[in-house]
């Protein structure tokens, strides 16, 4: 995954499906994945506003999210028949906090897609569904790039 451009993970057609109107490369700034390649895909032309962040993690697999050592509510899911973990901050309940779907793409590597919204336009379940849908699209593209 080192050679993959995270902004190439969603094709023009896929960006259209997700209503993405702009995107930009960046690096992850979280303590755990600082410096990891990431792309921000934004829906900002009209409300409701939201964004997706696709991050290529090459330092650990999805097991870290299931260990119980991180402050998240996590559950094992499947994305395009790949094992994945869906998580959000612990205790968020029905509040529309960011939700991340992390797909196990290789030993010690994961494709993370986080959906984040502005305001209260979506329920937590909807935000997680958005994350999972975008992760599935990104995974489909990743299989053609890797």
Radius of gyration from CA coordinates: 14 Å
Mean pLDDT figure: 93
Beta-strand level of the residues, as a percent range? 35-45%
Number of domains: 1
The protein's oligomeric status is: single chain
Query: Per CATH, which architecture?
Result: Sandwich
Our count of helices gives 3
Coarse structural class: alpha+beta
The low-confidence parts are none
What is the makeup of the main sheet? 7 strands, antiparallel
Order of helices and strands: HEEEHEEEEH
Termini gap: 7 Å
Helix content: 10-25%
The main sheet orders its strands as: 1-2-3-7-6-5-4
Protein name: DUF3558 domain-containing protein
Features:
DUF3558; 146 residues; alpha+beta; 3 helices; seven-stranded antiparallel beta sheet; Jelly Rolls; DUF3558 domain-containing protein
């Amino acid at each position: 995954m080192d050679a993959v451009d995270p902004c190439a993970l969603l094709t023009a057609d896929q960006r259209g499906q997700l209503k993405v109107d702009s995107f930009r490369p960046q690096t992850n700034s979280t303590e755990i994945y600082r410096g990891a390649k990431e792309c921000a895909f934004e829906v900002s032309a009209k409300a409701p506003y939201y964004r997706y962040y696709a991050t290529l993690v090459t330092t650990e697999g999805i097991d870290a999210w299931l260990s119980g050592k991180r402050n998240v509510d996590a559950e094992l899911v499947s994305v395009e028949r790949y094992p994945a973990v869906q998580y959000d901050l612990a205790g968020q309940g029905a509040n529309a906090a960011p939700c991340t779907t992390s797909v196990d793409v290789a030993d010690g590597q994961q494709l993370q897609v986080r959906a984040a919204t502005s305001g209260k336009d979506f329920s937590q379940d909807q935000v997680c569904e958005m994350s999972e849908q975008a992760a599935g699209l990104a995974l489909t593209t990743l299989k053609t790039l890797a």
